[in-house]
């Protein structure tokens, strides 16, 4: 379903989310690739099939194949890493921090996109997945790369809006699109 069609099914109580989606995809703090890569990564992390399909369709108009791959890779790897590192942090057992992860994470170094953009997408997914350790680590790397707090917060706005829209569509799915 086209994004505009899907958004027509946002309930009145969630109208702010619909309006926010329009404004967060036009934030001047982010490049077009940063914006739409964040959208893709967050849509995957938010896990609502209707919203994901619509946002992927819209993002394909703004991202090249490599950036799309990298954004999807950021969502995938952070889906794993956020659980692993959040467990390490929440367990309180310091021994876990000394033990190797022993998890394959090749996409982090081989995504083929801008490294700062990839970090930004990882940070946004980590915010959705509530991994403080990963949020802190990726925010630090971004700041070291010269990315501003305004840019970081712009990506988090995308994450928060997409996550909230996914929750709404989980609770009240849009009817299937009519076929011609």
Largest sheet features: none
Number of strands: 0
What order do the helices and strands follow? HHHHHHHHH
CATH class: Mainly Alpha
Helices and strands: which structural class? mainly alpha
Per CATH, the architecture is: Up-down Bundle
Question: Care to describe what's here?
Answer:
The chain has 180 residues and is mostly helical. The protein has 9 helices and no strands. It has one domain (3-92, 112-171): AhpD-like (Up-down Bundle). Helices cover 68% and strands 0% of the residues. Helix 2 runs antiparallel to helix 9. It is globular. The two termini are 13 Å apart. The model has no long low-confidence stretch (mean pLDDT 96).
Write a concise keyword list for the protein shown above.
9 helices, 180 residues, mainly alpha, AhpD-like
Q: How is this structure best summarized?
A:
The protein has 180 residues and is mostly helical.
Secondary-structure map:
Blueprint: H1 3-7, H2 15-24, H3 32-46, H4 49-59, H5 65-91, H6 95-98, H7 115-128, H8 132-144, H9 149-171
Helix pairs in contact: 2-9, 3-4, 3-5, 3-7, 3-9, 5-7, 7-8, 7-9
